[in-house]
Design a protein that fits this description.
Blueprint lengths: L4 H11 L5 E6 L6 H8 L6 E4 L6 H14 L11 H12 L13 E6 L1 H4 L6 H11 L7 E7 L2 H9 L11 E4 L5 H10 L6 H11 L3 H4 L8 H9 L9 H9 L3 H12 L5 E2 H6 L7 H12 L3 E5 L8 E5 L2 H10 L7 H4 L3 H16 L2 H7 L7 E7 L8 E8 L3 E8 L9 H18 L4 E8 L14 E3 L1 H4 L6
Helix pairs in contact: 3-4, 4-6, 9-16, 9-18, 12-13
Length: about 475
């Protein structure tokens, strides 16, 4: 199994514990949640069932019945409600011949895509609550795993529940996309031999989502693969963007409106700015949508250095969404092969490389030797000085240093000329003057191939390259 070392440690701890265990596993669609559980337990479950996407109550109960029968329930009728369904599951788990994990002798119950089971006006949650609190929580050899891409449902109904599930969950696990290093390992295991430049570019398109990367044909270049996956009539990922949001969220149009508004602003928008766009309405629903999008990893929430206590910015950071909205939805690009090496292509590379860096802040800190130093990752834009200045990544450290990060994509070594040196000095000094900070300011260049040695490089304190983003994060 590629990556997932920390997640495997958690699963092992749950497997060998001497108490009932209840794990909630969540994360964005296609990130590999089901694959992780199936591989770790070698598909050896006492019971496994999955919800039916967009299925009604009867369809969900029918699918649950089929799973019950498969694992040994002799009653072949569809349960009349969820209370009966879970009662039959309880009886099934009590059978002597029930399948057990060969390593721990535990009974493993895996309920996949659990949020889909909770249809409108059903008794699902009450019945599930009753099943765990009256049966599961007393079974020392039971490990219950629930999983779902509808992250907000699991968080709001299980993790943050103040009713029957309050304090009942024994562990939660948010599965994140792969890092660059893990993507490299996955591609190599699939026989896809790309340079690190090509791997970084693939990350700019697919992010670290294993499902998408597994589509890459080893016998074709990255550009050929992108054309085949997005720009042909029957391309497998051509409609993934819309399908992804419809599968994750009810009222998905509200989420898509937010995503589209954020896609047009490189540094993101505040809540007020989102509302002022006229396409997003204020209220509790907006709060929920933003929280859901953040939990799924589509957006990040960050503060401006100067106004951190007053305003929060929301920035679209998911590479797949950014790529789709930039090149596919508008139909302006008919072929990626024809688009590469154009000025628009290089502009996209510059912006996308910044997002890749923002998704690898832990690796950046590790290479800077500050993995164990508490810090805040912020941005800043000038409010007073003209010409103004903007910094997309500040690492504000507890050891009285601020790394001012400049992120630049260049196939060749990046050259700091006299004009750019002057611009960098202006940026640093403007930041110092406007914020009044007394911390040391260290200019940190993060480039793809490194910074060329010349008389202007002396202002750079720290230098990282794309290879540093491939570092194994050790915490």
């Amino acid at each position: 199994m590629i990556g997932r070392e920390e997640e495997i440690k958690i699963l092992e701890a749950l497997l060998y514990s001497n108490r009932p265990e209840f794990l909630a596993l969540y994360g964005r669609r296609r990130v590999g949640k089901t694959y992780l559980v199936r591989e770790f337990f070698n598909n050896t479950f006492s019971f496994y069932a999955t919800g039916v996407q967009k299925g009604d109550r009867k369809q969900q109960l029918r699918a649950f019945k089929e799973a019950l029968v498969k694992y040994g329930d002799e009653n072949k009728t569809i349960p009349k409600d969820w209370f009966e369904a879970f009662s039959r599951l309880e009886a099934l788990l009590g059978k002597e011949e029930i399948v057990r994990d060969f390593r721990s002798n535990k009974r493993i119950v895996f309920l996949d895509e659990l949020p889909w089971m909770d249809t409108a006006k059903s008794d699902f949650k009450s019945a599930f609550d009753h099943f765990w609190n009256t049966f599961g929580s007393a079974e020392k050899d039971l490990l219950l795993i629930i999983c779902g891409s509808a992250t907000s449902w699991i968080i709001n109904n299980i993790v943050k529940d103040t009713g029957g599930f309050y304090n009942r969950l024994t562990r939660q696990m948010r599965l994140m996309p792969f890092t660059l290093r893990e993507c490299e390992q996955l591609l190599q295991s699939n026989g896809v031999h790309y340079t690190r430049k090509q791997i970084v570019e693939s990350y700019m398109v697919f992010g670290g989502v294993p499902y998408y990367l597994n589509y890459l044909d080893p016998g074709k270049s990255l550009a050929q693969n992108i054309d085949l996956l997005f720009f042909r009539e029957n391309s497998p990922l051509k409609y993934e963007f819309g399908q992804m949001f419809h599968a994750l969220f009810h009222n998905s149009d509200k989420y898509l409106n937010i995503i589209r508004e954020l896609s047009g602003k490189k540094s993101g928008l505040t809540r007020k700015e989102l509302i002022e766009s006229g396409k997003v309405s204020d209220g509790k629903e907006l709060t929920k949508c933003l929280e859901d999008l953040e939990q799924c990893g589509f957006i990040r929430k960050y503060h401006d250095f100067s106004t951190r206590a007053k305003s929060v910015h929301f920035q679209l950071i998911d590479p797949m969404c950014l790529f789709y909205l930039a090149f596919i939805e508008n139909g302006k690009v008919g072929s990626w092969m024809d688009h590469i090496n154009t000025s628009a292509y290089y502009a996209w590379c510059g912006l996308s490389f910044e997002k890749v860096c923002l998704l690898h802040i832990e690796q950046i800190k590790q290479r800077l030797g500050i993995a164990g130093v508490s810090s805040n990752e912020l941005s800043w834009s000038s409010k007073k000085t003209k010409p103004g200045a903007q910094i997309d990544l500040l690492i504000d450290r507890k050891d009285d240093i601020i790394n001012i990060c400049e992120m630049k994509f260049s196939e060749e070594m990046f050259i700091i000329d006299a004009n750019y040196e002057e611009s960098l000095i202006h940026k640093v000094e403007t930041f110092r003057k406007e914020t009044g900070t007394r911390k040391a300011l260290w200019l940190t260049m993060i480039t793809f191939s490194g910074v060329a040695n010349n008389e202007h490089k002396h202002i750079v304190i720290n230098e990282l390259t794309a290879d540093d983003l491939f570092a194994i994060y050790t915490g």
